[in-house]
């Protein structure tokens, strides 16, 4: 037996370990080498109190290819598009412009209930649409008619939708300018602001799961980026690594609210890095810059399964809609500057003229021809009957449920009782 007065072997070992730990604790520790281990961000520790200032970083630059006179700034950035392609760009932009003018006047004459023009933003439509694949899925807001036009949506169907006649793919159920085309992969536009942003994120995640060579593009204005739906869409698309292009048209105004009253940061592109998205700011009045940026974003979105944010800087020359009077919140001189000095159509025309691809005679002939084409579609739409009222109740459920059927029967009883007050002869039987 061990003596009670003699230390045990266990005691010696414990003492040795304690001494070793004490030795380690006494070694100097350099706190400057310590790295943060928090899982939520990658950063360094600092030992001085300093808040991050929003204006420390200079503004995100604006990528452009052409100057205002149509001159290529850097030859390496020229997309080298064929004459036929560039002429198609120009003709689609000007055709959209002509359609806008006729339908705007149609609303002012009481022929249709509502309209929204695309004046000044034609370059964002055509440049981006041309860089996409026809199978790519488009979520528009309400000012992307040029995207649909570039994809081949006929004038007859534009007119039919605005007139809500029997040829309308939406069967007369939507407000004017709420276009949609399943065949052209263009999701029907809805009125509530920014709802398409999280919807596009979900669609892009589905595209990713299908493992197809396809992307989703989502258009919205800088005003829509102030909605909570924008946060949800940005965050989901980045964390789920979706092949999605967010295309923001920053046209200076959200209806009557200028950008300096909408946000304090550096535009919309500056938000991309905060969500983990690659971002770029482009000159939206330069159709080639928009084309290059969208084409590269599409290529990388497919190859890398990640979202991209494009902020196209442009200007809304027209009123927000036929319900708006923009002279109440901005000057005529401001509008005239963008209309006369920095317009996407005139810039592309300068480019074509410098190469001998377009002349004054070409312009005169095309303007006359395009107006004639639009007017023919306009007159045809105006003469068509309205959809059968019974279509109000179809396509809600696969099979009509009793409550909906009851509503339909109630409508017909009402129409029969008060038919002198309803122009039923204007509707299809």
Automatic annotation (TrEMBL):
<keyword id="KW-0560">Oxidoreductase</keyword>
<keyword id="KW-0496">Mitochondrion</keyword>
<dbReference type="GO" id="GO:0046872">
    <property type="term" value="F:metal ion binding"/>
</dbReference>
<comment type="subunit">
    <text>Heterotetramer of 2 alpha/BCKDHA and 2 beta chains/BCKDHB that forms the branched-chain alpha-keto acid decarboxylase (E1) component of the BCKD complex. The branched-chain alpha-ketoacid dehydrogenase is a large complex composed of three major building blocks E1, E2 and E3. It is organized around E2, a 24-meric cubic core composed of DBT, to which are associated 6 to 12 copies of E1, and approximately 6 copies of the dehydrogenase E3, a DLD dimer. Interacts with PPM1K.</text>
</comment>
<comment type="function">
    <text>The branched-chain alpha-keto dehydrogenase complex catalyzes the overall conversion of alpha-keto acids to acyl-CoA and CO(2). It contains multiple copies of three enzymatic components: branched-chain alpha-keto acid decarboxylase (E1), lipoamide acyltransferase (E2) and lipoamide dehydrogenase (E3).</text>
</comment>
<dbReference type="Pfam" id="PF00676">
    <property type="entry name" value="E1_dh"/>
</dbReference>
<keyword id="KW-0809">Transit peptide</keyword>
<keyword id="KW-0479">Metal-binding</keyword>
<keyword id="KW-0786">Thiamine pyrophosphate</keyword>
<comment type="function">
    <text>Together with BCKDHB forms the heterotetrameric E1 subunit of the mitochondrial branched-chain alpha-ketoacid dehydrogenase (BCKD) complex. The BCKD complex catalyzes the multi-step oxidative decarboxylation of alpha-ketoacids derived from the branched-chain amino-acids valine, leucine and isoleucine producing CO2 and acyl-CoA which is subsequently utilized to produce energy. The E1 subunit catalyzes the first step with the decarboxylation of the alpha-ketoacid forming an enzyme-product intermediate.</text>
</comment>
<keyword id="KW-0630">Potassium</keyword>
<dbReference type="GO" id="GO:0009083">
    <property type="term" value="P:branched-chain amino acid catabolic process"/>
</dbReference>
<dbReference type="GO" id="GO:0005759">
    <property type="term" value="C:mitochondrial matrix"/>
</dbReference>
<dbReference type="InterPro" id="IPR001017">
    <property type="entry name" value="DH_E1"/>
</dbReference>
<protein>
    <recommendedName>
        <fullName>2-oxoisovalerate dehydrogenase subunit alpha</fullName>
        <ecNumber>1.2.4.4</ecNumber>
    </recommendedName>
</protein>
<dbReference type="GO" id="GO:0003863">
    <property type="term" value="F:branched-chain 2-oxo acid dehydrogenase activity"/>
</dbReference>
<dbReference type="InterPro" id="IPR050771">
    <property type="entry name" value="Alpha-ketoacid_DH_E1_comp"/>
</dbReference>
<dbReference type="InterPro" id="IPR029061">
    <property type="entry name" value="THDP-binding"/>
</dbReference>
<comment type="similarity">
    <text>Belongs to the BCKDHA family.</text>
</comment>
<feature type="domain" description="Dehydrogenase E1 component">
    <location>
        <begin position="91"/>
        <end position="390"/>
    </location>
</feature>
